[in-house]
């Protein structure tokens, strides 16, 4: 029995020694963040909505069936001209500044009291050929500078075709 105990103890000692000689696992590199396109993500409850009749088209970013208008575009069929609309706070500079994928557009705007809130409705004229709108058409998102902050407006996958449909309609 004593011999058996010695064998067990020596086996434990060999096992312990073997464990001690095993190198600890190498420290793992931190997992890098996922690669993204840099495009903003869609916002739950907001999206791009497209409406058209025989002569006029409208593309609006906001909440469905509400007065929540963040940015809108109106045009006449094949005109190549846009009317850009957005709400701003009282006393806002009469200018609409938008950017898309590195291109920026700054448009002087007309200001009138908003029927939707205490602020103002800004309206600016532009063309569909402006670089910022061509980029928006290609990449599918646009951002607006509002009260010193950038608000990005990205479509949900199902509404992405609305952007191309609008620009195809407007010419």
Describe what this molecule looks like in 3D.
There is one protein chain. This protein has a nine-stranded antiparallel sheet with strand order 1-2-3-4-7-6-5-8-9. Strand 2 and strand 3 form a beta hairpin. The chain has one domain: Immunoglobulin-like (Sandwich). The protein is globular. The chain is an alpha+beta fold and 171 residues long. The protein is built from three helices and nine strands, in the order αβββββββαββα. 23% of the residues lie in helices and 37% in strands. It has helices at residues 2-21, 131-139, 160-170; strands at 47-52, 56-62, 69-76, 81-88, 95-100, 103-113, 120-127, 142-146, 149-153.
List keywords for this structure.
disordered N terminus; about 170 residues; alpha+beta; 3 helices; 9-stranded antiparallel sheet; single chain; Immunoglobulin-like
